[in-house]
């Protein structure tokens, strides 16, 4: 198998999420035999630095980050080399650095000054393929440059696909660790691509999707349950990329005629890829507060905690008095005590603070820190 065929095989394996470190090594071996040079790969996703063909002797040629000359080479590639471009090392490094590399490595291990560098893809920090000629090998710069140029496009595709898959795997692992927290949020959370493809969701989002009222999941991605809702959702995702540091907002209509969903979206950047976090709130649903939690956080009496729970449901003082079976004077008195203990001065601010505490519920009988 020639190096170009091997590179195309890497693309196929990456697309199937079956690209393993040893297959990069196998590709390096095939390329080495074709161009007559040692081959070293740096920055390949899912592979530790130092993936090489086995014939590269040891770490003494400065390729493993311990040599300042190699650090300068990496910076030069990021700054001066276009994706898919092949250049000689002596065209990228200043003469002083090159002289130091020659003094350290040319005679014993590798002719650094006649080595080639291929930049793979456009990511930062750059991924590189370096071809190194030891003194015992004939240096074929022109032939090797041609061979590496042919490999630039398929290697970039393999790199980008592998990086995307690795990123999704890391995201899923991180999300599984955070799930115990995000599932407690009183809003639906969607982490998705700007085109509408959903990557991960929390439990309220899963429940919302099962209703198929406002949002639906399709093979093409997330859509509104109505035509107007789909248009609003697309506009929201597009606008989110223009709101640097802020949220885009819209209302998503529901086919049932219920109150529209409140939607916020914000663009995120991860490994040079764009993602969107979208928060959905159902205005007809109010999270239930546990009075035990409120008592622990704010040292409330049972009566004060019960009033707080009723107010968090959106009831006014008159309705709260009826629900609790007390007079409005008693409710007003307890409300003042709630203001004092929670550090608020208005009923709206009190309810906002109480609802935020829903996500802090310890669960499983745990006690929040600082409370016995």
Lay out the secondary structure.
Layout: H1 3-15, H2 21-35, E1 38-42, E2 51-52, H3 68-80, E3 86-88, H4 95-106, E4 116-120, E5 127-132, H5 141-182, E6 188-192, E7 198-201, H6 203-211, E8 215-218, E9 221-224, H7 227-240, E10 248-252, E11 261-270, E12 273-281, H8 291-298, H9 302-312, H10 317-324, H11 328-342, H12 347-356
Antiparallel strand pairs: 1-2, 1-5, 3-4, 4-5, 6-7, 6-12, 8-9, 10-11, 11-12
> Main sheet?
5 strands, antiparallel
Strand content: 15-25%
**Unreliable runs:** 359-372
CATH class of the largest domain: Alpha Beta
The DSSP helix count reads 12
Overall helicity: 40-55%
List keywords for this structure.
372 residues, Arc Repressor Mutant, subunit A, alpha+beta, 12 helices, 12 strands, disordered C terminus, Beta-Lactamase, five-stranded antiparallel beta sheet
3D structure, described in words:
With 372 residues, the chain is of the alpha+beta class. The protein has three domains: 3-162, PHY domain (Beta-Lactamase); 183-281, Beta-Lactamase, CATH 3.30.450; 291-360, Arc Repressor Mutant, subunit A, CATH 1.10.10. Helices cover 46% and strands 17% of the residues. The chain contains twelve helices and twelve strands. It has helices at residues 3-15, 21-35, 68-80, 95-106, 141-182, 203-211, 227-240, 291-298, 302-312, 317-324, 328-342, 347-356; strands spanning 38-42, 51-52, 86-88, 116-120, 127-132, 188-192, 198-201, 215-218, 221-224, 248-252, 261-270, 273-281. The N and C termini lie far apart (69 Å). The model is unreliable at 359-372 (pLDDT under 50).
